[in-house]
Write a structure and sequence with these properties.
Elements lengths: L4 H47 L2 H5 L2 E9 L4 E4 H17 L2 E14 L3 E14 L4 E15 L2 E12 L2 H8 L7
Parallel strand pairs: 1-6
Antiparallel strand pairs: 1-2, 3-4, 4-5, 5-6
Length: about 180
């Protein structure tokens, strides 16, 4: 059988087309899988705050993590901040306060092993007298994926946000929990 140029062209182009089609769907699938993993990560952060699980929260952080705070005008190892926050976790666990934190994102960048998440978190506490504190805060977090899951490497707490800005992010549906 004699192969015509059209047949030869098909022999060469079909595999190229199939590879291109597979490659085109792979990044989206990988990105969706990464975002699902990160959603699970943020749900764990929220759970540990809500339940006062200090060790659970600490496990979401890389041992070398850094926190940057605009309001405090400093950068410090996250272990220092964790030492300050441990009392609130203990108070939550014992029922002295109820604490919650939720996250909404304006940008989620990354690959299989790194992520840069930008958005607003809403942190709220209620003490036994019913007194409430709440804060909307712009943040950025740099995460790395390790064998035991995603870990915060850098948390950048930026400036106060408003409830209106928070509500706008709800419309993006980047994070539903």
């Amino acid at each position: 059988m004699i192969k015509t140029p059209r047949t030869l062209l098909g022999i060469f182009l079909l595999p190229l087309f199939l590879c291109t089609s597979l490659m085109a769907s792979t990044p989206s699938d990988k990105n969706n899988a990464r975002l699902a993993q990160l959603d699970t990560y943020w749900a764990e952060v929220s759970r540990s705050v809500r339940e006062g699980d200090f060790e659970g929260y600490k496990a979401t952080c890389h041992p070398q993590a850094v926190i940057v705070s605009i309001s405090k005008k400093n950068s410090t190892p996250l272990t220092v901040a964790l030492a300050r926050w441990e009392k609130e976790f203990s108070d939550t666990k014992s029922g002295k306060i109820k604490a919650t934190v939720t996250f909404r994102f304006s940008q989620r960048l990354g690959d299989e092993t790194t992520a840069h998440e930008t958005g607003i978190f809403f942190y709220s506490t209620i003490n036994t007298k019913g007194e409430r504190t709440q804060e909307y805060l712009r943040f950025e977090t740099l995460l790395v994926k390790r064998e035991d899951g995603w870990k915060t490497l850098m948390e950048y707490q930026k400036t106060q946000a408003t409830q209106q800005e928070w509500d706008v992010l709800a419309k993006h549906h980047l994070y539903k929990k």
